[in-house]
């Protein structure tokens, strides 16, 4: 394998893995995480190098990225992952809106906003370069989101100015802060609410003494702040919750694409549409997910054949209940950690309060990671992956369980081949 190739070319350099499958020593379950965010997305990590180094240090062997709206950073991620002996999975995350469920007051996987849905794409490959269809679909989302961020920064500035503090922040300055923090090209930065909250907190910390910060925030909030000035992350979270959420003074209504647009983008990127499950991460459980069988019905109606968990939201018992029912229904399951706040939690997924994953659940999450690896490999090599270009299950096998197992077997061999070549490449450097 050449020393420096594109993320997709790396998969092509693996050769004819299907022919090798029966000869390969497929790896047993490896520590895996199919969902983190890397900067310039808001992230627990300051750089790609830091994220990959921590993953290697913590024994993660398969690591997936699910960034919003720009994938330029995936080239560096792929190179650093290969050097560290980590198999990279490429993904995306999109926010969309279901008008019918909004009108019905049905919460999907955002507990505060009926009709709002997070949807992921797993195993994407058509991002370097973007296909014309993907670029057009993505640009619609980027435009809607960027306009909202500009207006939200303006409203935040007005709120603080009314309380007697000129933050001197606009969209350009907030973007420049992200660029300076992470050393990324400006055109790759798509601002999020957390970027804005962080920018205002940092300006406060630079401009005012702790006592003055507390006094200002009390005027802004209308009540004393709960987080101390020394708690930067806590202050950022409080700024966001007290000023930027629905009904708060700097809130700007969200303008999302519909589910069909989001699904079409995932397929244009060559990925598997994947639903992120909240389950008992909120009480009461969202109506869309009110029990595992109801969730299965909703996913089947939308032709979604993969679901992802962030297990630290869930109790082991509830997680196991949802995972086993989904998998029995022929839906692939995966697990990640997001790392989309500044909290430094371990990279290996675990249940709420750090409780370990049930063993059978961990096995199914590994199976899911292998399915995504197989899909990514097949599509990169011009073949049909786990789902076809319309998002429907592919292949001659009609039984969902056998189809998933066959894809996982291939993905396991792909990972084993990649690991072998990565070791050889490392030894030759």
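Sequence proposed for the structure above (429 residues):
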């Amino acid at each position: 394998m050449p020393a420096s190739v594109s993320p997709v070319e790396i998969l092509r350099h693996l050769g004819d893995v299907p022919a090798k499958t029966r000869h390969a020593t497929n790896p047993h379950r490896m520590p895996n995480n199919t969902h983190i965010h890397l900067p310039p997305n808001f992230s627990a990590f300051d750089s790609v190098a830091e994220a990959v180094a921590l993953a290697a240090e913590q024994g993660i062997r398969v690591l997936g990225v699910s960034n919003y709206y720009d994938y330029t950073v995936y080239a560096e991620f792929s190179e650093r992952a290969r050097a560290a002996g980590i198999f990279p999975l490429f993904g995306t995350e999109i926010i969309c809106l279901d008008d019918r469920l909004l009108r019905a007051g049905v919460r999907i996987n955002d507990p505060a906003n009926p009709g709002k849905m997070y949807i992921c794409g797993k195993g994407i490959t058509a991002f370097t370069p973007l296909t014309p269809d993907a670029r057009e679909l993505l640009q619609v989302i980027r435009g809607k989101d960027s306009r909202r961020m500009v207006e939200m920064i303006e409203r935040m500035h007005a709120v603080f100015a009314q309380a007697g503090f000129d933050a001197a922040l606009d969209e350009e300055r907030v973007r420049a802060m992200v660029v300076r923090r992470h050393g990324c090209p400006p055109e790759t930065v798509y601002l999020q609410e957390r970027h804005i909250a962080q920018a205002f907190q940092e300006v406060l910390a630079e401009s005012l003494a702790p006592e003055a910060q507390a006094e200002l925030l009390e005027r802004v909030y209308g009540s004393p702040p709960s987080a101390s000035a020394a708690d930067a992350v806590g202050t950022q979270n409080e700024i966001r919750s007290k000023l930027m959420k629905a009904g708060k003074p700097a809130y700007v209504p969200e303008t999302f694409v519909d589910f069909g647009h989001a699904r079409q983008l995932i397929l244009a990127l060559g990925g598997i549409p994947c639903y992120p499950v909240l389950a008992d991460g909120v009480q009461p459980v969202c109506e869309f997910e009110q029990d595992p069988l109801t969730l299965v019905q909703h996913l089947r109606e939308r032709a979604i054949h993969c679901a992802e968990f962030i297990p630290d939201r869930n109790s082991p018992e509830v997680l196991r209940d949802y995972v086993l029912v989904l998998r029995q229904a022929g839906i692939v399951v995966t697990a990640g950690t997001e790392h989309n706040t500044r909290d430094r939690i371990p990279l290996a997924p675990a249940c709420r309060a750090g409780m370990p994953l049930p063993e059978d659940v961990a096995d199914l999450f590994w199976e899911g990671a292998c399915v995504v690896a197989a899909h990514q490999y097949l599509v990169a090599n011009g073949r049909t992956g786990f789902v076809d270009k319309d998002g429907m299950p592919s292949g001659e096998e009609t039984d969902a369980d056998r189809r998933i197992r066959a894809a996982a077997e291939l993905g396991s061999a792909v990972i084993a081949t990649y690991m072998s070549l990565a070791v050889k490449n490392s030894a030759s450097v």
